[in-house]
Amino acid sequence: MNKQGMIQVAGxxxxxxxxxxxxxxxxxxxxxxxxxxxNLSPEYVQRLSERGQRAVYxxxxxxxxxxxxxxxxxxxxxxxxxxxxxxxxxxxxxxxSGYGRDNYRTYRPDSPVDSGFAVVLESGDKTIVRPLNKxxxxxxxxxxxxxxxxxxxxEGFPIEVEMEAFSPFIxxxxxxxxLPATIxxxxxxxxxxxxxxxxxxxxxxxxxxxxxxxAVQAVRHSRIVNDKGRxxxxxxxxxxxxxxxxxxxxKIVLADFEGDNxxxxxxxxxxxxxxxxxxxxxxxxxxxxxLGKGLVNTFLGGDRPQGTLTSPAFEISRKYINFLIxxxxxxxxxxxxxxxxxxxVRTATGKDNEKLEWHFWNVENSRGKTARIEIVxxxxxxWGHINVDQIELADESSEGNxxxxxxxxxxxxxxxxxxEEAISAKNTREIIESTSGWSKQLHATLxxxxxxxxxxxxxxxxxxxxxxxxxxxxFTFVLxxxxxxxxxxxxxxxxxxDAASVAQYVLDNHDRLAGDTKKWHQxxxxxxTLPRWLLFRLHSTVSTLATGTCQWRRSGRxxxxxxxxxxxxxxxxxxxxxxxxxxxxxxxxxxxxxxxDFGEGFDPNSGLVGFRSNRTYAADGQCGTILKAYREHLxxxxxxxxxxxxxxxxxxxxxxIKQDGNDDxxxxxxxxxxxxxxxxxxxxxxxxxxLAALNAGAExxxxxxxxxxAERCERIFESGVDLTMDRLWDGEYFIQxxxxxxxxxxxxxxxxxxxxxxxxxxxxxxxxxxxxxxxQVKQALxxxxxxxxxxxxxxxxxxHPPERWFALPGEPGLLTCTWPKSPYLKEGVRYRxxxxxxxxxxxxxxxxxxxxxxxxxxxxxxxxxxxxPAKHNPFNEIECGDHYARGMASWGVYTALAGFEYHGPNGxxxxxxxxxxxxxxxxxxxxxxxxxxAQTRAANVQREQIDxxxxxLKLKSLAFSVPQNWKAVETTVHLxxxxxxxxxxxxxxxxxxxxSRELRLSKDGTLEIEIRPKSGP
Length: 1017
Ligand SMILES: [Ca+2]
Ligand SMILES: [Ca+2]
Ligand SMILES: [Ca+2]
Hints:
Largest sheet: 10 strands, antiparallel
Bound molecules: calcium ion
Number of helices: 19
Structural class: alpha+beta
């Protein structure tokens, strides 16, 4: 245990005994079900801050992993735990996964598109092909976002494989981080004592027209192309002339469910009852869209009952099977299947909607075969039922015209490129055919077209290489996609013509793109002194940028859901929490400010910032927009963002001042907010955001020479602080003043709200200092820890079940709100019993600024423990939908640990490490460059090193913290070997250094500062 660890352990022990005393002093009337003593063992506490190793997962743990490995806002492609690809949501379709137990469940992401790599080993006259997947032998996943890493070894197999998979991810270079492509480095290592001959086989299915294949008249087209010394498998699709059905024959109706019973269909289980339903069943939302009077509706007795309904055998005598379907959207659980030889060859589900809609299967390939239809209800939970009607065989499909072929969302191209020239298609076929024991259907054809409904995978193989004992060789592949027909387009559309040009760009620039990505990984993970598990957790949420949650539109506007496919409009109050994109890719957040908040979503008459780019007010979102605007200014290289947007920023702040009503610094009216309800009366959730916004407004006004407005902001601020301390401080934490008789619902009143100091945390992020007196701020955060963080949420949630489950009994979590000292409000603030990772990070980040580092790390560790891959995908922190944006609050914890402060236009950079200040190192990002900051501290000298590793950095002033007992210091500054003159001022342990001239650090430039205490008076 190092010295720092000792201090922290001592700190938590003191804190814990303090909380026990506090409980003894004011025994609540009801037992508070969150223990004040968290009972964390000293070993647990010590492990929190240990540097530790990179996590390695294997066996069952591999099942849940799905690491996003595509570019920012280019769709959602997962690297699964065993190195295979999954999800494949790159076809411009947004799929909402549900919330609570629907998405907080343990599952393996599916893989609807066939692709992969295999090792080809020439062993005597035999060829052994071993695919890189979970059956390889021992498989280990050791990925850390953005770089996926999977290792394969097997007993008796002389080759070990290491595969890296990632899309270029280079902070501050948004365009090169938003490529619709994934790079694979497949490294073969000979672990035997003999020379081995081996190569790598790669394959990819043609998934163009992924969703529309069954509904279009088209062919798929696959080619293998040699170009620029590389080999590419190029998949496309082409429209074929519309099939003219001159005189369609009459439809054959297999079932219309109009009778009193199911006739010759066979029902099993209780959910189908004695016969077809007549429309909507008791307690069901209105069912519509069916024909006639009857339909299959398995909501009989609610969602609980299950069963199957099977048709008699029939001959597939037409090209299409048409039917109406509604109800639950659960694959295999609420579905209709087409069975041939007892096997489901087609399946369809509802869309979690009671309305029945037409659906059809193209069954041309199965014409003449005997089949059955099976309607399945194997689900008892939410949407555990299915609605079906009017099943017909027909010459024409029931679906309407999808529109022009080349405008379909899944029209485009898909490429697998090998960085070298592959062996000939003929020789690849020989490998595939000579392989025994591997029954995979692969093709290697130079040019082939086939029906769009056919599934076909094309393969290519590298030339075999001779590997000496212990020698290794890396094979580089690129998967690229180009699907431009998103309704708003993609930023990438304008830069590329097709997937082949994307792949060629990535390979042309491979060394720079892969090199800079690895340099970031090295700087963030390897060179840091921060705990490895913590770095993993805090960076994993950034992968949200590379999921369906985020769009970067053709117009250049960054836009986002809250979670994948759920709740539109870059919601101001959810994005209030997300610090990561602004620090890593400030260009994206600037576009959201300029094109949404102060663009489309801005009402120039009132200053209202519509919280979903609409004309609707959210009090927290409105104040947060001012804070974000100031942050975007701080993260900019110059003052142009502020100059350009200031009139609207000011107007937006004036809108909040108008809500305050009397310039007293308290907003008392109805405040819609992120809990999807309105707070009535003054509270510090909106109040602290408002005061922080006034502070930020004053700073910006001064920079814009608007002194009168700056003074007005300050006057309101001062009044707000005084009134808040007078009225809202209850001695332990901040409460809400509300008339519960008038507003009995959705309030927290005397409750302890975890987010009660949200604005104070923001103020620290922006170096605005304290809003409320530091002592009370620290006390309030200690109360949040004491009352709201449960090492096991079980007892609390058993008494007070949450609306939605984002943590399960046995798991730790920070509750949104509790009532430790007053009766529980059973109609209190919505989501009060839930666990949101975004709030946890928000609170943890703020705790770090207040030197509650151990408590902060325990909260983050709680998230990490919940998202262990034996249970959940560690890269997918959920809330309403997958990859929920609020989780990107994690970056606020990261910046807080470094005590990071930055003002880009002024060239000011500061650090005050909150953890291991004696020996600290961490990556940082500025406006135009990033690098590594290091600090060492000994008895009589402190050294700072700013090592720029990418881009450039303008510097005019610096700030650091030194030991409190250093009352005067001597400071020297060197840029590389050149001494730089400076003046410094030391106050209460904070040292500010003004450089005599503005410096421009370029890549590999290093600034070193040496600080020594002056002895004597
Ligand atoms: Ca009917
Ligand atoms: Ca059911
Ligand atoms: Ca007021």
